[in-house]
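input
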Amino acid sequence: MASVFRSEEMCLSQVFLQVEAAYCCVAELGELGLVQFKDLNVNVNSFQRKFVNEVRRCESLERILRFLEDEMQNEITVQLPEKYPETPLPREMITLETILEKLEGELQEANQNQQALKKSFLELTELKYLLKKTQDFFETETNLAEDFFIEDTSGLLELRTVPAFVAGKLGFTAGVINRERMASFERLLWRICRGNIYLKFSEMDTPLEDPVTKEEIKKNIFIIFYQGEQLRQKVKKICDGFRATIYPCPEHAAERREMLDGINVQLEDLITVITQTESHRQRLLQEAAANWHSWVTKVQKMKAVYHILNMCNIDVTQQCVIAEIWFPVADAGRIKKALEQGMELSGSSMVPIMTEVQSKTAPPTFNRTNKFTAGFQNIVDAYGVGSYREINPAPYTIITFPFLFAVMFGDCGHGIVMLLAALWMVLNEQRLLSQKSSNEIWNTFFNGRYLILLMGIFSIYTGLIYNDCFSKSFNIFGSSWSVQPMFRNGTWNTQVMKGNEYLQLDPATPGVYSGNPYPFGIDPIWNLASNKLTFLNSYKMKMSVILGIVQMVFGVILSLFNHIYFKNTVNIILQFIPELIFILCLFGYLLFMIIFKWCQYDAHVSQHAPSILIHFINMFLFDYDDPSNAPLYSHQREVQTFLVIMALISVPWMLLIKPFILRANHRRAQLQSLMIQENATEDIEGGNSSPAGQKTSAGAQEAQDDKEEFNFGDIFVHQAIHTIEYCLGCISNTASYLRLWALSLAHAQLSEVLWTMVMKTGLHQEGWGGLIGAFIIFAVFAVLTVAILLIMEGLSAFLHALRLHWVEFQNKFYVGAGYKFSPFSFKHILDGTAEE
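output
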């Protein structure tokens, strides 16, 4: 449970594995998903590593699986396995290669045969229709006359007829061409042959299928008459250029009928063969679909294992694999058990050896999450992954983030809509997860479903506090205001009430306000008052300042836990204490004045209450001679002077003392290291080879290795930057929390405008037209509410709450300079969420 508040304690270990057992051990660690491997071959080229051939074989299998997936697309439904298969053993790769290569070969052969058969079917079908159309043409044109195309001066075409006896000497060419090429084909024929041809064409009614692309194609049948060998050669070249298919067509009708009968018989035989080929292809695809997901999982696991093995070292004897792993200390037992299982699975008798090693690099940061806390942890990590063992802001963000969002979004009605949307995603999360949508926007909302759920709950709460539901108020407990006494006194009569749509509420008027506060939230009668904004602005502005100061002070207090954990006494005395004094003496005192004024002054004496803002400004100026602004309490001058002096003292406390103490500590460490080196030199010259002398020599070497350059100027500048940033940040951050007030005001006003301009207008209509119009107006109101107030305003409040946590809250205690723990996990690899 402690790991929720602070990142897990990590350990770096060397693991020694027998070569035969390395594959199975890494596979078991991949199933466990709690180990991050270090790349020990950073300087080795990827193509020179030990298991590069195995990785290439896995990539070849992935290529075959992609080919099978493309073939099954839109034809066969791939069956999902009930559970992921176990990691295959290395020897199973040969079996898998044999199965997939055989399946690929048979499928490619079936595709080629099917393509060849469909091409033959297409050609025979074209020839069949060509013979029919040619026969019809010769039957209708019994007295064929030859027409020639010539071009007149206007660019138009005209026909010139020659005697019929010339037709007996004509040759002809028949074929098929794509319909979209027909116009260009006809035009070029006329130009090249100078009009000395006769072209007849007809459209094929039946659309055909291209055997390669499987797209529908439309073609025309043509027959060209010409005279002479020269024109025949020209026509043939033009047909070849337009990729027109020329078919042999007999001159005599009997021969054409005989050929047509033979073609019909061939088409029937082809249809039978094509059907059988397609059935064989479907059987192959069904076989692939039944095991495709299992094959993909196995190949991905094998490839991942070999990729990890390429990150390991192999000793000179080629018998031992050496790996370095980061893992949580709490899971050391599970990792050892997984290594033993891998050893047993491989049949090895050598137990894997784990030895802890020291590392100069900082360990990775690992925060355990579940499906509820993952969204909040992602918000924190988006700013920066926490430093190792640094306090984790995510547990506090679970409450503060949706609450600050709700302060800006506070509307009961909109919160209910948001809550229902989040509940739908939460209750149907298993079904929605199984769909594996690739829509990035949807995945963003779905991954934050629990965050949206809490935001909706808190928005309902703040909406009830504001007494705001779609810009309307609830009158549950009855208003604490009464106008009856004013009627008796004659101040408010009927004419006054009719002549004023809005009236200003004054709590100080005798008899109007009962003095009892509304039991929960804001009195609903404020929704009718003209000074509603004046009242709510003051209330929400002070509430924003209070929330901001409380959260900032809480952030400063959290920094104390970091200093205590890292045993940094210097930071506690010279950083935390002056920071806390500074913020409490100035802004903590501001919070005190706000609450004190609320408690001290009621409605009857509020007109004579002093201004907190003027008091706060005069506090810095040491100006207490303002007669128009009476003091809040006795001895206020002495208290405020003391607080300002303490705040001023804390600034040089933070700025000056820490750099000098760090320099003194560094010099002391240098003197100690020099003394150790001198003792070691004396021991070596004296020939001291005792264990104590060796220990002294080792200590000297360690002191020399750990020696770091100390730059006093850099330390001082860094401390000055931190001091200035903190002092100015307290002021700017407090002002930044006023966005809670501004966003809340904007949301309430937008909601009221939408109700007034849309819904209220529709409800004023009467009769049947008004009834129908009410449905239309409500639909428009609902769409605008979702689009503007829920989505746009919700995203705006979300971004502002994000900024308040990243900048105003987390910068008080959170460095975020670490790097994320990325374990080797088959689950992450198969889900596609593994990091590079």
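quick obs: The first helix runs from residue 2 to 5.
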